[in-house]
Structure formats: C-alpha cells, structure tokens
Amino acid sequence: MISARLERLPMSRWHIKARVIVGAVTFFDGFDQLMIAYSLPVLIPKWNLTPAAVAWVIAIGGIGMLVGALGGGWLADRVGRLNVIIGSLALYGAMSLGMAFTHSLALFLVFRFVQGIGLGAEVPVAATYIGEITRAHKRGRFVLMYEVIFPIGLVASAVVSAWIVPRYGHQVLFALGALPVLLLPALFRLPESPRWLAARGRPDEANAAMTRIETEITERHGKTLPTPQPLAAAVTDTSRGRFVEAFQGVYLRRTLMLAAIWASAYFVNYGIASWLPTLYTKVFSLSVDSALHYSILTTVAGLVGCVVVALLIDNLGRRICITASMVLCSATLFLLAATGTGSAVTVLLWSAGAALFVFAVNMALYVYTAELYPTRMRAIGCAIGGAAGRIGIIVGPLVVGRILGVGGSLATVFAVFGAVALIGAVIVGVFAVETREKTLEEISQ
C-alpha cells in the first residue's frame, strides 16, 4: 500500500530537497504575481491610466489565474502533478519576458492574462504535490514551511522592485520574472507523486517512484525503514475524479466553505496589496521610491504571519488558526477605517497588521484544502479553492477602483475589506472540519 509506505518514512533530506525545488518554483510565482503592483506607479503615467483602467490592469492577471487554477487542477488529476508544475513555470516565465519587451498596452494585457494562467495553475498543484509526499504527523508544519516561500517571493518582489523600478524601469523587473525557467532541469529529476500514480491505476510506476524515494532515504540515513503498517481507511480508488463530485455528498459542505474563505481572504489580501503603492503615490503624494519601500514593510509583516501560522497550525488545528486570523484581520481593518486613514504612516502600520493575519490565512488554506479531498480529485478540490481565490483577486482591486472612481474615501475601502474578512471568519468557524494529525486517506472518507 503506497500510503502506508509514505506514512512510515522519516522526515529526510529527500523531503527537504523536494520542498526546496518545488518551493523555488512557488517563490518565483509569488515574485511574478505582485510585480504588476510595484510597476503601476510607473505604468500609470506611461499609459495615462484612469483608476478604472488601473483596476483592470490588475484584474486581468487575476482572470488568467482563475482560468489557470481551474484548468491546472483538472490537468493535474489527469496528466500528473509535476507535468502541470513544469508547464506552468515555463508559461509564466515566458510571459513575463514578453511583458518586459512590449510597449503596447494591449499586448501587455494579453501577456499578463496568459502569465496569470501559469501563475494560477502552479501554486495549488504544487501544494497538492507537497502534501501528497508528506506523512500525517506534522504535515501542516512541513507543508506550510514550504508555502512560506511564496510570501518570501512577494517580499523579494517588493524589495527588488523598490531598487529596480526607480533606477532601471519596469522592463528590467519583468525580465527578471523569466529566471524560473532555470529550474526546469531540477524539476525533471523529481519523481511523480506515488499517491497520484496509485490513484490513476498505475501501480508499477507508483511502486517505482516509491522505491526511488525509499532508496535515497535509506542510503542517506544508513538504516532500514520500519515495516509499513496497514491503514484501515486507506482504500485505493482508481476512478477518475470529476468536478461535479466536489459538490456532492460530504464534499459539498467542504467545497462551499473553502470557496467562501478563499474568495474572502484573497479579496482582502490582493485588493489591499495591489493598490497600496498607487495609494501612497496618488493619495499621500509619496515618491515612487518611498511608496515601494512602504509596501515592503507590509509584505514583510505578512511573511511573519505565515511563519507564525506554520508553527502553530499542528498544535491549534486548522479551524482555529484560520478563524482567529480572519477575526483579527477584520478587527484591524475596521480600526484602520475608523482611525488610520489620515496619513501614509498610519495606513502603513494598520495595513501591515492586517497583512500579518490575512497572509497567514492564505498560507493555511493551501495545506487545509489539499487535505479535504481524496487523491483522485485532490487537485480538482485545490483548483476550485484556488479559482475562488482568483475571483477574490479579480474583484478586490475592481472594488477599490470603483470606490475611488466615484469619490469614495479610504475609510470606505478598508471598512469593506473588514466586513468581507469577518464574513469569511464566520463561515470557517461554523462549517470547517478539523484535519489535524489525520492521514489523507482518513480525511477523505
């Protein structure tokens, strides 16, 4: 039984290697995803963009991510996790290069949309792969310490943008977004998920992948692995997963709950993060250089939240961590709306507090979503969650653009975000199921 063989593996250098390689891909996903936000202070005067046009420049990438999340999950359950990760990386890297060399707004938007397809497909499928090669004990911490690489990519994007954009322009920044293609050789050397191979009715390939992993671990540890212990709930299902199954039986409640929290968390996160550099320059008249440095601090606060939730999630559980983080994010945003919109510094401080909590939720959702579905439809479940998040990515910036376009205040913007965060907290608190310390096969029943 593949699952039993995976559960008896000690944490090893092989696991770390796989986490680092796939994590590097996710790092560049985060790096590429927010480059648009840090380029907007330069792109707005270049193309004379109105608030509505700015919102669509941001949102077009989110629309691509929505397509990528749905399509990537569907493909990953049919052609394999690694194949989709490799294809996604090549796509978003190539499109970033295209964005660097075009001077046409129309072509830029086309490249941004297609880049979004690659960005949207990679993260949920990568999280699925990492979750499937990990045993139940401390799975949350292991997966989330991998996922922390995504906000590190966001921080790197902010830091590099703050130095590159004012000095060399946005073209150099987008050209750097093509660097992940250098990771392709390392990805080709990783084995496919043994759980996925077994679920697809390919036992010989699953056994070969599993043997390859076990051999590398035993050679490095210099000792024999313990005998696999049969798992009562581990029944291999080789049927093909379908999207409709995510909305049937026990999975209906899980899917609707996940869609709601993914959409609300990313509505808040991306709506704020994508607009902050522009708000600093347009509302508070900061220089481009200062606006980008302010944005770095907000992203660093989010990174801290990701590390904290990674350390706590196996002790407190998924439900408590996600609910509490969304409540605290909501409270921070309401306080920002009530007292903190008078200066750039107060917006920075309060938005950094909100980022700390909402980034933690975004990270927790990757491990939690992958746990709630069986192997045959795990990537589909992650795709639906990721797609809901991409809807939040699309709608959040558009809502900010709409509010500002009709003369609304920053207080209104942050109050709306606070309300959405509170709705997400209530839904998770009421409808979420706990998965801590359970095998993936047990949870899927």
Description:
By secondary structure, the chain is an all-alpha fold. The protein has a single domain (2-226, 241-443), classed as Growth Hormone, Chain: A (Up-down Bundle), CATH 1.20.1250.20. 79% of the residues lie in helices and 0% in strands. It has 19 helices and no strands. The radius of gyration is 21 Å and the shape is globular. The mean pLDDT is 87.
At a glance:
The chain contains 19 helices and no strands. It has helices at about 1-5, 15-35, 35-45, 50-80, 80-100, 105-130, 140-145, 150-170, 170-175, 185-190, 195-200, 205-220, 250-280, 290-315, 320-340, 345-370, 380-405, 410-430, 440-445.
Protein traits:
445 residues; mainly alpha; Growth Hormone, Chain: A; Sugar_transporter_CS; transport; membrane
What secondary-structure arrangement, pairings included, does this model have?
Layout: H1 2-7, H2 13-33, H3 35-47, H4 51-79, H5 81-101, H6 105-132, H7 139-147, H8 149-168, H9 170-176, H10 184-188, H11 194-199, H12 203-221, H13 250-282, H14 288-316, H15 318-339, H16 344-371, H17 378-405, H18 410-431, H19 440-443
